[in-house]
Amino acid sequence: MKNVAANIEQVSRFYGSGKSRLTALDNITFKINAGAQLALIGPSGSGKTTLLSLLGALERPDSGKITLFGANIDKMSERESADFRRHNVGFIFQDDALMPELTVAENVALPLILVKSAATEIKSRVATILADLDLQKFSQAFPPSLSGGEKQRVAVARAVIHQPKLLLADEPTANLDSRAAALVLNAIDKLANAYSLTMIMATHDPRVYKRLSKKLELRDGKLV
Amino acid sequence: MIFWLRFALRSCLRRRRRTIITLAGIAFGVATLVVLGAIMVGVNDTMINNAVAIHTGNVVITGGPLPMPQALLRVDELLLDLEATPQLQAVMPRLHFPALVTSAQNNSPIHVVAVDPRREALQTPVVKRIIAGTYLNNNEGLLLGEVAAKRLAVKPGDRVLMVTPSQRYDLKISGIFSLGIDTFDRSMAFISLETAHTMSDLEVNHEIALFCRAESDLGKVAKTVALKTRPSEEVRLWHEILPEVAQLVKLNEFSMAIMVLLVIIILSFGVANALLISVMDRYRYFAILKAIGVRPREIFIIIMAEAFFMCLVAAIIGTILGSSITLIWADFGLDLSRYTSANPHFSVNSIVYPRLTPLMALAPQILALGSGILAAIWPALVAGRRPINQVMRGL
Ligand SMILES: Nc1ncnc2c1ncn2[C@@H]1O[C@H](COP(=O)(O)OP(=O)(O)OP(=O)(O)O)[C@@H](O)[C@H]1O
Ligand SMILES: [Mg+2]
Questions:
Q1: In angstroms, rounded to a whole number, what is the distance separating the alpha carbons of residues B268 and B322?
Q2: How far is B280 from chain A, CA to nearest CA, in Å?
Q3: Each residue of A83-108: pLDDT tens digit?
Q4: Sign (positive/negative) of CA torsion B346, B348, B351, B352?
Q5: Of B209, B277, B367, B393, which is most buried with the most CB atoms under 10 A?
């Protein structure tokens, strides 16, 4: 039997209350195997971002249970879930989400600093990953001086440098032209494979989901 | 922890404009308090010095009444005992007795003080306030206040009779002084101790006025003095003799404390406001940090550290600025005569010299630092506690 990375059991998520209550996720149940690379597709408003937020322990389900690598993430305190995220989850957001006052190298180093890696190791791993993504020339630059595609590749490096078990990406190419998007996707591919990460990427873009073997489709908060 | 401190420092440095504005506000407040505090200390100094110079000395020994020859002996004895005390910058013997001074036109009850003119010249304001004639330099002279001189219609060189219970003495007016304090100018007169020597029938009260080098030596001086005096003599400190001046000093300090408190409260609100805005500006930023695993407590530390750095730098700059202004100002002094000319406590010298005391130089910065850090707690908690469930939606 393959290792199960994530087990989602009868998970629902509602927004608002009373008449304006909105069901973002409606009683969803599925499993993700370790090492799987999934595309999460579905029309706008179908609940993709909501699902990723739940899987990343950024928010809690209103009902149901989520187990990630054996840990029940919906029972965790703020601090526990922060610690869980710093060790196990990498995020790539739609916008680049880099820290403007840190250099590119420092931004990429951040997750390693959080897991208390040794300074020399941090240095060499940052250098390696930046070289892998052809970003070494920006290492001392500050994010605001980079193009959108470059920033997003830095964000990819930051999301995976600590080799999280789970990589969550929410429309990472939505703001990019196709050339930059291709570079970012290549970067994700390369690193996800190199580190054999479990990955879920939400997207509208056929060019993106065609690259991935498996698809998970949401419609009105339900899996189809 | 150290990483978060560095992170906070970096974020202060990168957000230069916000940092500088907040910093300038705090620094200005601290500098203002340092300068105001120094002025207050200076005002108190001036007030005490004035009052003490006119009335008493910092410490005063009184005794009597004794017959004049004995009083003179006793005064010499005390001088001999006390003159070498290192904390004293001046020791002045004075003999007091009442008399009626009569001229051809009028008469006037006068409180006569026999003094050592050379010693008095060092310290007392009367010497500087001679409006006619000279200070006591001839042995038989009488130095009379302006109001009394007018009432008696006399001028320097005229002769008057000084009538005492036992004797009457014929004296020449050597000069007229005006201190600007009515009771003094109306009812005080001075003669020299030389002159007093000739008045052996009189009974007088003796007094030794002691001037300290520093107000802080007061206690030590009082102790030394206590050992040298007789049980029949009384030793009093200036604030016992002049409780109204002591109260004014306290009142001044109290209003200054209120002032400090107000400024510090305003500063705290400024700091809280600046930080709250900067925290709200950076919700997304903190949310991303939390998403990648930074703990709420670490976010709290970052913001507290930012506040600490800003307040620390601002407090140091403010103190340096305030102290520099004070030190420069202390050279010129601050002429308050426009506000004090009718005030007896400033009648001798109305130039105030701002003075830094350790308390007034350090209290504003320590308070600013402390209150700035306190003011940061709320914004830091807000940032630390804010949920991050919208972070993937760009909020
Ligand atoms: N904080 C919120 N309050 C109310 N409704 C919300 C909130 N967040 C999301 N929703 C709603 O939940 C539903 C699912 O939202 P979600 O962001 O998961 O969709 P999505 O599939 O990511 O859409 P898109 O492709 O446009 O990003 C939407 O109808 C959305 O309006
Ligand atoms: Mg979405």
A1: 19
A2: 16
A3: 999 999 999 999 878 998 889 999 99
A4: negative
A5: B209
Q: Whole-angstrom Cα distance, residue B121 to residue B170?
A: 25
Ligand 1: does its nearest atom lie under 6 Å from the Cβ of A22?
A: yes
A79: chain B residues, CB-CB within 8 Å? 295-297
Residue nearest to atom 30 of ligand 1 (CA): A45
Cβ atoms of A29 and A192 within 8 Å: the answer is no
CA distances from B4 to B289, B294, B299 (A): 12, 10, 8
Using an 8 Å Cβ cutoff, are B29 and B35 in contact? Answer: no
Within chain B, strands assigned E span 59-67, 88-102, 107-115, 130-133, 141-145, 159-163, 168-177, 188-192, 203-212, 234-237, 334-335, 351-352
Q: Give the burial string for A89-100 (b: 16+ CB within 10 Å, else e).
A: bbbbbbbbbbbe
Full residue range of the structural domain in which residue A161 is found: 36-59+79-223
Q: Does B10 touch chain A (CB under 8 A)?
A: yes
d(CA B203, ligand 1 centre) in Å: 104
Q: Tell me which chain B residues have a C-beta less than 8 angstroms from the C-beta of A164.
A: none
A87: CATH:
3.40.50.300
Partner-chain contact A58 B294, CB within 8 Å: no
* Residue A67 in domain: no
Nearest CA to ligand 1 atom 24: A44
Residues from chain A that touch B389, judged by Cβ atoms under 8 A, are 53, 58-59
pLDDT digits (tens, 9 = 90+) for B184-236: 888 889 988 888 888 888 888 888 888 888 777 788 878 888 888 888 888 88
A46 within ligand 1 shell (Cβ under 6 A): yes
Residues in chain A: 224
Specify burial of residue B293 (Cβ count, 10 A radius: 0-12, 13-18, 19+).
Answer: buried
Q: Is B223 left (phi over 0), alpha (psi -120 to 50) or beta?
A: alpha
Q: Are A115 and A162 in contact (CB under 8 A)?
A: yes
B297 touches chain A (CB under 8 A): yes
B10, with CB counted inside 10 A (0-12, 13-18, 19+), is middle
ipTM of the complex: 0.93
Residue with token string 């949401």? A218
Nearest-CA distance B3 → chain A (Å): 8
The answer to whether residue A131 neighbours chain B at the CB level (below 8 Å) is no
Tokens at B284, concatenated: 């997304």
Sketch the domain layout of chain B as residue ranges. Answer: 2-51+246-393, 59-215
Does any domain span residue A118? yes
pLDDT digits (tens, 9 = 90+) for B137-191: 756 788 888 898 888 888 888 888 888 888 888 888 888 988 877 888 888 899 8
For chain A, the domain total comes to: 1
Q: Which residue of A has its CA nearest to B2?
A: A113
For the whole model, what pTM was predicted? 0.79
Contact of B146 with B175, CB cutoff 8 Å: no
- A123 burial type by CB count under 10 A (0-12 exposed, 13-18 middle, 19+ buried): middle
Q: Confirm or reject: Cβ of A39 under 6 Å from ligand 1.
A: no
Element (H, E) at A27: strand A22-33
| Nearest by CB: A97 against B13, B288, B294 | B288
Q: Are B109 and B187 in contact (CB under 8 A)?
A: yes
Q: Which of B128, B114, B142 is nearest to B180 (CA)?
A: B128
